[in-house]
Specification:
single chain; mainly alpha; Endonuclease Iii, domain 2; Endonuclease III, domain 1; 2 domains
Amino acid sequence: MRADESPVARTRRARRMNRILADTYPDAHCELDFSTPLELLVATILSAQTTDVRVNMVTPVVFATYPTAADYAAADREKLEKIIQSTGFFRAKTSSLIGLGQALVERFHGEVPPRLKDLVTLPGVGRKTANVVLGNAFGIPGITVDTHFGRLSRRFGWTTETDPDKVEAAVGAMFPRKDWTMLSHRLIWHGRRVCHSRRPACGACPLAALCPAYGEGEIDPVKAAKLVKTPAEVAVLT
């Protein structure tokens, strides 16, 4: 964060960066496949510690086998574990999905509730997962603070916070609520493609002139361009 930058100036700079990202990633979106709030909730739980591509390979079978909350509640543990095993941490995820189904049936008539305070009471659901579901399944603005969003928020000098809830609050205060969901997609896409954790492609970054961390990565334009991930590479590596 720039020591000589006022909160107003920081907010203006952040909004300029968001506009540039909007131009850079006009097709930014949730990269998990789903058709209902329940499917997105399940897919997001499965996405922990694995790639969206891996989840999308598994969920067609999951969704076909367990189309309702009641189906998850009554799921055979061994069968569900086998289906989702390739996503990693499958025993814990199975427990979350069975518990999720039971909670939805018992407390919400089998439906995914469209409120943050209700979503975070469900097994396996924290604020990040809840905001993914709210923003993408219900059209209710939410900020998704995953590892990419948190890293970029600090690199951009928008906040020094490391706690995801505090990052969410700090960044959310700088943008109109209606922008929150798309802002999340743009930062996540940029983090996956350009602003990498170890070797950011600074010399190929459209935000270079506005970023206080410019120079932490490769600044030579030709070398930096080679670090930018293609969609296919993003699918494999994130």
